[in-house]
Design brief:
The complex is a heterodimer. Chain A is an all-beta fold. Chain A is built from no helices and eleven strands. Chain A has strands at 5-7, 10-13, 19-24, 31-37, 44-50, 53-56, 65-68, 75-79, 88-95, 106-107, 111-115. In chain A, 39% of the residues are buried. In chain B, the strands form three sheets. In chain B, strands 2, 5, 6, 10, 11 and 12 form a six-stranded mixed beta sheet that branches. In chain B, strands 3-9-8-7 form a four-stranded antiparallel beta sheet, with no helix packed on it. Chain B has a two-stranded antiparallel sheet with strand order 1-4. The chains are: A mainly beta, B mainly beta.
Chain lengths: 116, 112
């Protein structure tokens, strides 16, 4: 079974530029999550999708971050314009159940963003 | 508000020695508890989880954890570590809804 796929693995941009990350979850997983992991911290949920609908985006900085999951499968996370503090690893995860707290999250390898 | 605390940011231990990584949670509701491991340049992988039932939970790679409700703890243990266990370990809690809360992580360094 293929795991969660993410690209690109690494990205270096200058502040005020834009960047996009792509995620393809495990086949059949209805729930998809984007986490931000800053160095030395635990993952922080940015947004959660159930199929193509948003379940939670309360911690997404909506003035610069956007995410979509148009067909309920793969997803794109965009940052525009980027700030220095956006330097982090962006992790995509998926789960079979709606209630992730009772089930396992499957993570991709992450996309490491460096903003100069 | 729910929170997860991992007091030790780094734990060095010699190979074949036992290790305990500490996790405390704060919640006014029933919790589900998890330990994830993150190897360098990889995503997180589930080690074990506690949902209900026996308070001693066994996971992959010889790890186990004990849920202690009175001390609000879920410490991770392994009786004998290997070099390959060097990684970052995250404790997480779910309050029965859809949201995970992660701790800040503990970096386990196994020394030869």
């Amino acid at each position: 079974e293929a795991g969660v796929a993410q690209s690109p693995r690494y990205k270096i941009i200058e502040k005020r530029q834009s960047v996009a990350f792509w995620c393809n979850p495990i086949s059949g997983h209805a729930t998809l999550y984007w986490y931000q992991q800053i160095l030395g911290q635990g993952p922080k949920l940015l947004i959660q999708f159930q199929n193509n609908g948003v379940v939670d985006d309360s911690q997404l900085p909506k003035d610069r971050f956007s995410a979509e999951r148009l067909k309920g499968v793969d997803s794109t996370l965009k940052i525009q314009p980027a700030k220095l503090e956006d330097s982090a690893v962006y992790l995509c995860a998926s789960s079979l159940e709606l209630t992730s707290a009772t089930g396992e999250l499957f993570f991709g390898e992450g996309s490491r963003l460096t903003v100069l | 508000a729910q929170s997860v605390t991992q007091l030790d940011s780094q734990v060095p231990v010699f190979e074949e020695a036992p290790v305990e990584l500490r996790c405390n949670y704060s919640s006014s509701v029933s919790v589900y508890l998890f330990w994830y491991v993150q190897y360098p340049n990889q995503g997180l992988q589930l080690l074990l989880k506690y949902l209900s039932g026996s308070t001693l939970v066994k996971g992959i790679n010889g790890f186990e954890a004990e849920f202690n409700k009175s001390q609000t703890s879920f410490h991770l243990r392994k009786p004998s570590v290997h070099i390959s266990d060097t990684a970052e370990y995250f404790c997480a809690a779910g309050p029965g809804t859809y949201k995970y809360i992660f701790g800040t992580g503990t970096r386990l360094k196994v020394l030869a």
